């Protein structure tokens, strides 16, 4: 059963004194249940806009998004999100951050603690429960953000370049950790990135997006077997897919450059 | 250590050097004062020497009048400041994050914050009289509108992602305000309360300008009539020391109440 459906979605931003921006143009996309779906595209192509629509943080100009057939109206704990920016609550400890969603639901404290402990262990931060975010590294903060989103038991996990601000070593560790967790729970994931390697390494399917207006240019299934590891990055299959995506994005970049020069 | 370390921007210097420089500044000021007065460079009714100020302080501590004046001023400042803060913190947080609150409050605040409070004193006397309430109102007016603007800036700077993230964790609007927006503002609120507390002290003399019969501002104004520069300086030093104490109290309070937030 497909989980998230994006049906003919268009988003136009009208800013006073500027030309309206068509951030998303007639996007049609199905995010399959239990699959790891990735959207890759250049920065400014509308990736975040699309993800925020799925989160219900604002409404599209036209079209419809639905989760399990139900039209998305507003945000909900059903759809967890991890942001690129650090969004931990600095006044809460790691444990309290992870419990935040559960405490909103009014779960008994014992249950909250148990779930938090489990999630913190899953992201490898056992021992840091009582630390405050200001004492954590960027990678650790994003792990807590992941644990916090997962603690709510969402139907789908939305991730907006969650490792974008991390250095490349930490980023690779985080990708491996994320896959590790995903292999265990097969949560439906919609992951966004501008990093092609990251997209192929993580995804069951990679949707390549183009800019101005934002469109899905092609959806490429990634048949590289799991579990994937560092060697995957240099395998011939990986290289073949990467070449294809690079070509798609290169065409686009050339077009965008020309239209920018012409306009 | 080399001189070049002292002159490099934002570089650390050893603690003893720091302390030494601080003491040097104080000693220079005090030395200058001694030189001017004991060296008979200025007349004593123009600038009283240190021992005269100490003596004035000793006498007024003995007959408790200094303590009475301190208490009178403290009660005015604290009442005015607390009333202003209790209103300005919630209103400022809302003003910074809700367009409607901003539309309601901004025009009035923008106008009031540049108005010298002393200009309003005639009206205050007409409306509230010349008692304790009038003095408290002066402090209130001097701090409230500044607090409102500063705290609304703090609130406006709370990251949109933090708010959005709370929604995706299942928070409703009310919970976003009470459980995310307000706590997120607290460090900035505390810093600005500390700053405006300092400003409240600067309004003290204005508050006690009219019909006061106690208070440090009154003590200073009264001493001026007889050119008792020793008492004037005593009042000035007392206000300075009390101001320093409240400032330290705020720093301490911040460290105790908001241990999670980095201080500098
Ligand atoms: N709130 C907004 N108002 C106006 N324009 C916006 C707004 N949000 C995004 N945009 C524009 O929409 C386009 C897509 O933005 P975004 O979704 O953030 O791209 P990406 O995440 O792929 O970098 C950009 O050109 C951006 O300037
Ligand atoms: Mg983005």
TrEMBL record, chain A:
PROSITE patterns: ABC_TRANSPORTER_1, ABC_TRANSPORTER_2. One of its GO terms (molecular function) is ATP binding. Keywords: ATP-binding, Nucleotide-binding, Transport. It comes from the Bacteria. CDD domains: ABC_NrtD_SsuB_transporters. Residues 4-236 form the ABC transporter domain. The keyword ATP-binding applies. This is NitT/TauT family transport system ATP-binding protein/sulfonate transport system ATP-binding protein. SMART domains: AAA. It holds the Pfam family ABC_tran. Belongs to the ABC transporter superfamily.
Automatic annotation (TrEMBL), chain B:
GO terms for biological process: transmembrane transport. SUPFAM superfamilies: MetI-like. It is found in: Cell membrane. It comes from the Bacteria. The chain crosses the membrane at residues 21-41, 70-94, 114-132, 200-221, 227-245. The keyword Aminoacyl-tRNA synthetase does not apply. Residues 70-250 form the ABC transmembrane type-1 domain. InterPro entries: MetI-like, MetI-like_sf. Keywords: Cell membrane, Membrane, Transmembrane, Transmembrane helix, Transport. One of its GO terms (cellular component) is plasma membrane. It is a multi-pass membrane protein. PROSITE patterns: ABC_TM1. Belongs to the binding-protein-dependent transport system permease family. This is NitT/TauT family transport system permease protein. It comes from Tistlia consotensis USBA 355.
């Amino acid at each position: 059963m497909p989980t998230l459906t994006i049906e003919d979605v268009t988003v136009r931003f009208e800013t006073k004194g500027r030309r309206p921006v068509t951030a998303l143009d007639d996007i049609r996309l199905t995010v399959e249940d239990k699959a790891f779906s990735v959207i890759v595209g250049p920065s400014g192509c509308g990736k975040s806009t699309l993800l925020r629509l799925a989160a219900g943080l604002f409404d599209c100009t036209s079209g419809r998004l639905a989760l399990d057939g139900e039209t998305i109206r507003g945000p909900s704990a059903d759809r967890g999100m991890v942001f690129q920016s650090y969004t931990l609550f600095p006044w809460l400890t790691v444990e309290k951050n992870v419990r935040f969603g559960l405490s909103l639901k009014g779960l008994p404290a014992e249950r909250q603690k148990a779930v938090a402990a489990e999630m913190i262990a899953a992201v490898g931060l056992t021992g840091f429960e009582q630390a405050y975010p200001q004492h954590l590294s960027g990678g650790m903060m994003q792990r807590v953000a992941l644990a916090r989103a997962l603690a709510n038991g969402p139907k789908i996990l939305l991730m907006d370049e969650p490792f974008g601000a991390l250095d490349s070593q930490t980023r690779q560790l985080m990708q491996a950790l994320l896959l590790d967790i995903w292999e265990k729970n097969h949560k439906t994931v919609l992951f966004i990135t501008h990093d092609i390697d990251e997209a192929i390494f993580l995804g069951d399917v990679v949707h390549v997006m183009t800019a101005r207006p934002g469109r899905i240019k092609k959806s490429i299934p990634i048949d590289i077997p799991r579990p994937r590891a560092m060697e995957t990055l240099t395998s011939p299959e990986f290289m073949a897919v990467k070449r294809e995506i690079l070509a798609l994005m290169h065409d686009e970049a050339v077009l965008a450059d020309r239209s920018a020069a012409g306009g | 250590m080399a001189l070049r370390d002292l002159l490099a921007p934002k570089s650390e210097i050893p603690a003893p050097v720091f302390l030494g420089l601080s003491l040097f500044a104080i000693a220079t000021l005090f030395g200058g004062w001694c030189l001017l007065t004991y060296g008979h460079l200025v007349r004593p009714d123009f600038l009283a020497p240190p021992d005269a100020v100490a003596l004035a302080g000793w006498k007024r501590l003995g007959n408790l009048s200094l303590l009475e004046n301190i208490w009178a001023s403290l009660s005015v400042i604290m009442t005015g400041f607390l009333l202003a803060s209790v209103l300005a913190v919630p209103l400022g947080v809302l003003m910074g994050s809700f367009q409607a609150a901003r539309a309601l409050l901004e025009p009035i605040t923008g106008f009031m914050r540049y108005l010298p409070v002393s200009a309003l004193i005639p009206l205050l006397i007409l409306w509230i009289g010349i008692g304790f309430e009038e003095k408290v109102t002066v402090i209130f007016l001097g701090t409230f509108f500044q607090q409102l603007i500063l705290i609304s800036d703090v609130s406006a700077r709370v990251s949109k992602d933090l708010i959005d993230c709370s929604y995706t964790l299942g928070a409703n609007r009310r919970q976003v305000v009470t459980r995310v927006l307000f706590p997120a503002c607290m460090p900035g609120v505390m810093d600005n309360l500390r700053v405006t507390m300092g400003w409240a002290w600067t309004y003290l003399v204005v508050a006690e300008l009219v019909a006061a019969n106690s208070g440090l501002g009154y003590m200073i104004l009264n001493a001026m009539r007889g050119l008792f520069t020793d008492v004037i300086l005593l009042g000035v030093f007392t206000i300075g020391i009390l101001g320093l104490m409240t400032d330290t109290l705020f720093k301490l309070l911040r460290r105790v109440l908001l241990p999670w937030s980095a201080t500098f």
